Amino acid sequence: MTLKEGQRVKLAADTRLTNWAAMTGDSSTSTGTVAGSLSLAAGTEGTVERVVEHHHQSREVSEYERLKSLLDAFGSEMPTESRRQLEEQVGSLEPEWIAYQQQGLRVTVRVRLDNGFILDDTHEDAFTPA
After folding, report:
1. For residue 109, which of 126, 99, 124, 97 has the smallest C-alpha distance?
2. Which DSSP string corresponds to 34-50?
3. Cβ-contact 114, 45 below 8 angstroms
4. Cβ neighbours of residue 22 under 8 Å, at least 6 residues apart?
5. Are strands 8-11 and 31-34 parallel, antiparallel or unpaired?
6. pLDDT of residue 56
7. In whole angstroms, what is the distance from residue 118 CA to residue 130 CA?
8. Is the CB of residue 34 less than 8 Å from the CB of residue 19?
9. 15: Cα separation from own chain's centroid
10. pLDDT value, residue 24
């Protein structure tokens, strides 16, 4: 499920935030003190303000894409031995590529809850459409 900016959502489960810092004073003299924990109830509604898709590709995945593209585009024109070596390199990187494909895209959101709290950099699975 990919959420969209402006979409209404609700927390999918009770959510406990621990060891968060409360800011006191104005911005020039504010001090952070540990305030303990805060629990937000499942069903608390809010609005998605930002959606961030994280593309975390390892070097091996990037190299697989590069070599596979090269093989697909020019493999038929390459000398037999060069093509065989390239196929071996692509094959050796395929497990990393498969793992990357299976893990899927990581999406985080910033949601302004109706009670005034803001949850930022939160995995989208923490919310359901309202």
Report:
1. 124
2. E--EEEE-TT-EEEEEE
3. yes
4. 32, 33, 34, 35
5. unpaired
6. 78
7. 17
8. yes
9. 19
10. 57
Beta pairing class for 45-54 and 8-11? antiparallel
In the chain, the amino acid numbered 45 is E
- Which amino acid is present at 1? M
Q: Report the distance separating Cα 19 and Cα 35, nearest Å.
A: 6
Query: Is 86 buried (19+), middle (13-18) or exposed (0-12) by CB count in 10 A?
Result: middle
Residue-wise pLDDT for 8-50, tens only, equals 999 999 998 876 665 555 555 555 566 678 899 999 999 999 9
Q: What is the bridge-based pairing of β-strands 45-54 and 127-129? A: unpaired
Q: What local confidence, expressed as pLDDT, does residue 102 receive? A: 86
pLDDT 10s digits, 77-87: 999 999 999 99
Dist CA 100 CA 103 (whole Å): 5
